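To: structure desk
From: M.T.
Subject: fold request, one chain
Message: Could you run this one when you get a chance? Sequence is below, nothing fancy, just the single chain.
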Amino acid sequence: MNFKRNFFNSIEISATGLHAQRKRMDAIASNIANVNTTRTEEGTPYKRQVTVFTENVKVNRFSDLLEDERTQLKTTDPNHLKVEEHIIWNDTLSGVRGENVEVENPYKSIYDPSHPDADENGYVLVPDINIVSEMSDMIAASRAYEANTTAINAAKGMAKNALLI
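Reply: Done. Structure tokens follow.
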């Protein structure tokens, strides 16, 4: 039999999902806000950002913070179960990490000779951002965030029900 050490694991894993989806929303919001930005501090048009998701095996666990405060259970009856003998702990937690990166080909050219940033041929480099695509990504990020919130609430409910036993 393989048990998790405590109820916090599910919450901590889902929290990494919340954090990653928040970063995704940050990138999407930045892309939408800068859809027409032709000049940044570097002198180039805004570069579209995307969020790259990777597995995060090392999750900071709340239970680790409590580890020093833990006291050993004492068995006063020989029929009490000894946890170490009957349960195999699974200390491997995984989660997700989101990192915002700039895309490879972030610009497109449009013909607008009256634009102050137009080149000698009248073309202006603008960010290659599709608002419809960004909006659908925003909906997907919002739903993923909501799913992680639901998972956290389910884990909290399980912990609450366990206390009622």
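Reply (cont.): Residues 112 and 122 are 6 Å apart (CA to CA). Let me know if you need anything else for the meeting.
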